[in-house]
Design goal:
The chain is of the alpha+beta class and about 375 residues long. About 60% of the residues lie in helices and about 10% in strands. The strands form two sheets. Strands 1-2-5-4-3 form a five-stranded mixed beta sheet. A two-stranded antiparallel ribbon has the order 6-7.
């Protein structure tokens, strides 16, 4: 790692665990450190810890002012999201809802505003999906949204004038394999049926049951890794979730979690990836090893863990945010040509990701091929959103 990357990681660990670093930071090129934080989606964490260590570092006055303004803006953003979440829950008009991902995970940070905001994710399930979409269209007339609730999509998206979004989820994850989709759907139903109450400020919401939530947050991060990249923000999310859920659980509860995760990760061909991510969290983000279920530091896991960490530091959240083909161009293509382009990109991606999860990526590639063949035979149209 470069000096800037080493300093960045030291400060991020200090920020998430509430520890003050005692290292000497003289001679550090701070613009490089700030650039890394931005690429990794962790600017609020870094700015907050730098401001707390001002006497140790000596931040230039203009930088200090900009950091303070950014932190205040992030706090105000959180308040705005709390109001939107309240409107969302009230607007659903009795439809059971479960809060997913970032907004609930932020509550595990030393202060919630230290997590950089993305969008608001709310699960309502398949049975209540259309009713919930209709209710929220009335609740948020100022938002831009799809005209229909397409069954191919995971969620219905409400985009506000400030470009923030609420994603109303029909399901939490999509799969190329129908068998995997059915298997995971059962876990999702069970995890949501056992959703637990959770306080966000003065608002009471539901979040997924702990075992399922750990599985889902990990799988969501992995989905990002094989598509657009997994930033440090998602590693921080997983570390703090594990610390507050598994690390704080009783021994019997920990055993139950381990058995659950081992069974389902193995079935989904992701047990090795889980252990690889755990190695990174323990050895680079200072999560205690006894707070990550099924932790391993075998030679194989260590090798893959270092590969994954190097890639996270290199790419952050910016590997590729562009679609395979621009949507309007793709809609005019013959279906066979469109599928061929998609297949080439999927194959290149599978080869690229193969070292991290060989069984999973081989399975993923084959499932995508079969799915593409079925859709070609049926002449399935693109979802017009």
């Amino acid at each position: 790692m470069t000096i800037a990357e080493t300093v960045y990681l030291e400060l991020i660990c200090s920020a998430i665990w509430g520890k003050k670093s005692v290292k000497n930071f003289s001679g550090v090129l701070w613009p490089e450190v700030l650039t890394i934080a931005n690429k990794q989606g962790t600017s609020p964490l870094l700015y907050d810890i730098l401001l707390k260590m001002d006497d140790q570092i000596g931040i230039p006055a203009d930088w200090k002012y900009r950091m303070q303004q950014y932190c205040v803006a992030n706090m105000l953003s959180q308040k705005k999201w709390e109001e939107r979440l309240k409107r969302c829950i009230e607007g659903l008009d009795g439809v059971p809802a479960v809060l997913l991902k970032g907004f609930s995970l932020a509550q595990y940070y030393p202060t919630p505003y230290l997590r950089q905001w993305g969008d608001l994710d709310v699960w309502v399930g398949v049975d209540n999906y259309h009713v919930a979409c209709a209710n929220l269209r009335k609740t948020f007339p100022e938002a831009i949204h799809h005209d229909e609730e397409w069954e191919e999509l995971k969620h219905y998206c409400f985009v506000f004038p400030d470009e923030a979004a609420i994603e109303l989820h029909r399901i939490t994850m999509g799969f190329a394999s129908e068998r995997d989709e059915r298997y995971y759907a059962r876990l999702e139903r069970e995890g949501m049926a056992q959703a637990k109450p959770f306080a966000i400020g003065e608002l009471q919401v539901n979040v997924p049951e702990d075992k399922f939530n750990m599985l889902f947050v990990f799988m969501h991060a992995w989905e990002h890794f094989i598509s657009t990249g997994m930033p440090m923000k998602q590693l921080c999310d997983m570390a703090l979730l594990a610390h507050n859920v598994y690390g704080a659980a009783t021994h019997d509860k920990q055993v139950e979690m381990e058995q659950y995760l081992h069974k389902h990760l193995r079935q989904l061909k992701l047990l090795g990836v889980w252990r690889t991510v755990g190695y990174v969290l323990v050895n680079h983000l200072q999560l205690p090893s006894n707070e990550w279920p099924l932790y391993s530091d075998s030679a194989r896991i260590m090798k893959y863990g270092e590969w994954l960490f190097e890639r996270v530091m290199r790419e952050g959240q910016g590997r590729n945010h562009k679609p395979i083909v621009e949507r309007e161009v793709a809609r005019k293509m013959p279906i066979l040509k469109r599928k061929w382009i998609t297949l080439k990109v999927r194959y290149a991606n599978a080869v690229d990701m193969m070292p991290y999860a060989p069984r999973y990526m081989a399975h993923w590639m084959w499932a995508n091929v079969l799915k593409g063949i079925k859709r070609t035979i049926k002449g399935t149209q693109m979802v017009p959103y």
